Amino acid sequence: MSNSHEPAWLDDVKWDAQGLVPAIAQDHQTGRILMMAWMDREALALTARQYTAVYYSRSRQRLWPKGESSGHVQKVHEIRLDCDADVIVLSVEQLGGIACHTGRESCFYRVLKDDQWRSVEPVIKDPKDIYG
Predict the structure, then answer these.
(1) Is residue 52's pLDDT more than 90?
(2) Which residues bind Mg(2+) per the record (predicted)?
């Protein structure tokens, strides 16, 4: 449940058992799906307040401001909630043109073809050059 410091609209979101909701980042100009990550109440509230994407890292168990280590910040243009209230879509401007930690524009760069996943998009920047 919310506390007195949180906006009431957070209660309209159907959070999963871990208190998370999936969030899809979509390019605000092209409509391309860039990535999917998780948000907790604090991440969604911060995203709405700052209009830059903040996610929740399940592996690190902490807030993850997108671009904190890569510099590839997502400026949020719009936040949408689906009909079941259990998925968020962020319409974003992806700074640097790279959303994926592999150095690609999108995390969805593999296509199933002939019973194999095939990479169909180039690496824009080597991850070693992004993360060191």
Answers:
(1) yes
(2) 82, 84, 86
